[in-house]
Amino acid sequence: MTKSIITVVGNDQVGIIAKVCTYLAENQVNILDISQTIVQGYFNMMMITDTGKCPKGQAELSQELEALGREIGVRIHIQHEDIFNMMHRI
Amino acid sequence: MINIFEVNETNKMIEQENLDVRTITMGISLLDCIDSDLEKLQENIYRKITRCAKDLVKTGEDISAEYGIPIVNKRISVTPIALVGGAACRTTEDFAALACTLDRAAEATGVNFIGGYSALVAKGSTPADELLMHSIPEALAKTERVCSSVNVGSTRTGINMDAVRLMGEVVKKTAEATKERDSLGCAKLVVFCNAPDDNPFMAGAFHGVTEADCIINVGVSGPGVVRHALRSVRGADFETLCETIKKTAFKVTRVGQLVAREASERLHVPFGIVDLSLAPTPAVGDSVAEILEEIGVERAGAPGTTAALALLNDQVKKGGVMASASVGGLSGAFIPVSEDQGMINAAMEGALTLEKLEAMTCVCSVGLDMIAVPGNTSAATISGIIADEAAIGMVNQKTTAVRLIPVIGKTVGDTAVFGGLLGQAPVMPVNMFSCEPFIMRGGRIPAPIHSFKN
After folding, report:
1. Looking at residue B89, what is its pLDDT?
2. How many CB pairs under 8 A join A and B?
3. Residues of B in contact with A88 (CB under 8 A)
4. Given this model, what pLDDT does residue B453 score?
5. Which CATH number fits domain A3-78: 3.30.70.260, 3.20.20.150, 3.10.20.740, 3.40.50.300?
6. pLDDT at position B366
7. In chain A, positions 67-86, which contact chain B (CB-CB < 8 Å)?
8. Could you say which residues of chain B have pLDDT below 50?
């Protein structure tokens, strides 16, 4: 299992989660956990995913998700879980 | 499991507060390249560097993409060239030719700087050391990416005052040799006391002879993150202030440790150290001076600045040490003038003087760094300033360094522009009284009494 964190931030609108999840499903990325809030009108979502079975490399995933984000009008990042674990867990 | 607040905190640090890994520096030993034939030596050096570091830049970029953390610089440090070139180089031109080889190897591997055009002369100089020091102006004028450093003293050995005198002249000649570019060569030349063997930061990086054949050292950064964290504790007491700096330094350093570990694994090169320095850049909000302002001094240089810097430096170390498997290099707060917008402002407004900067170097990790002085400053005066800094380092058992830029053709009121990460600096006034008879004495300042620990 390769855990990656996907974050989506931007103006709230209909269908953000649907579009992101569709992309992930097409690329064999399994979603393990989702948290989502609206802060001052801004859509703010974090997904913990398993990218272990995804045929694409992390760099390619990252570029495609960024492009998808631009299409929707939000910012999407995918990062290896370890950067958060290192910073926030001893 | 990681929660959304933690993820947002990390990403805010990266996106809004300039958190980055400042440099992955590969240290490469060139001792096995030594040959008495100059051409063979050049070939050996070029081959070894391009072989060891061929994947360095790509690996840095991959890690950066995967973890979403910018890795600003990929660099190389090598064995001090005076040791490597001693058998082959008969003239200063021979040594400068080695600098050109380093420059070509750096270009081929895609790194932006290569450090190690260096001599270690804390107690005395060999003929090769002398030649290398004399060749520095030519070497720095002819190359783009080569950085040079000379260690002129240490707590264990005292200060080599002959080398101090010579380096004053070398700094002046380097300024002359690069005068068309605001004496840029001097921005790549550091004079050290107690130089560390594993420093990943330029311009003072070199790969010490006590190091392994090839290692990965990582320098973290994060002045913007510390400053932002301190905003939330305005008006709080010192204990709260210190706790906040420590916690922030811990988080920043953990990222450095992660990057170092990953780079080391992927390149199959042992991990050396994480240097947990607060390294500013000219970017807005990435300033050590602004942290000092946040702590409570109106401008860097105001009364209280030295104490504020002392506590900052200490807390950064305390927070960072626990975050990394191995800490080394300079590890503390950097206070370069030209590379820190808050320092530039303070100098321009008259809050910060050379003398106050000297006091600040007693309590932080480096020395007088990236300071532009009038182009007509004499070599003896520059040597005097070097001697003062070296004395601070020698007596306090810490690294100190001098990176002064006597900007040829400019004087107080002018600004020197170096561009990029090197930034720009207002030309600062220098004490006009002479120290020439002091510098001309020659010889060595003996090691201080507290160096006799055996």
Report:
1. 95
2. 63
3. 2, 6, 9-10, 251
4. 85
5. 3.30.70.260
6. 86
7. 77-86
8. none
Of B1, B7, B258, the CB nearest to A82: B258
- Residues constituting chain A: 90
**What is residue A40's predicted lDDT score, i.e. its pLDDT?**
79
Q: Write the CB contacts of B285 (distance below 8 Å, at least 6 apart in sequence).
A: B17, B18, B224, B227
Residues B172 and B282 in one domain: no
HSE value, Cβ hemisphere, 13 Å, CA-based, for B333: 36
Per-residue pLDDT at B78: 97
Number of structural domains in chain B: 2
For residue A48, what pLDDT is reported?
Answer: 95
CA gap B422, B282 in Å, rounded: 8
Q: Decide if B274 contacts B327 (C-beta within 8 A).
A: yes
B67 touches chain A (CB under 8 A): yes
Test B258 with A86 for CB contact under 8 angstroms. Answer: yes
Residue B103: C-alpha distances to residues B52, B147, B178 (Å): 15, 10, 17
Name the residue range of residue B316's domain: 217-252+270-439
Residue B449 lies in a domain: no
What CATH number did the domain enclosing B234 receive? 3.20.70.20
Contacts of A58 in chain B (CB under 8 A): 65-66
pTM exceeds 0.95: no
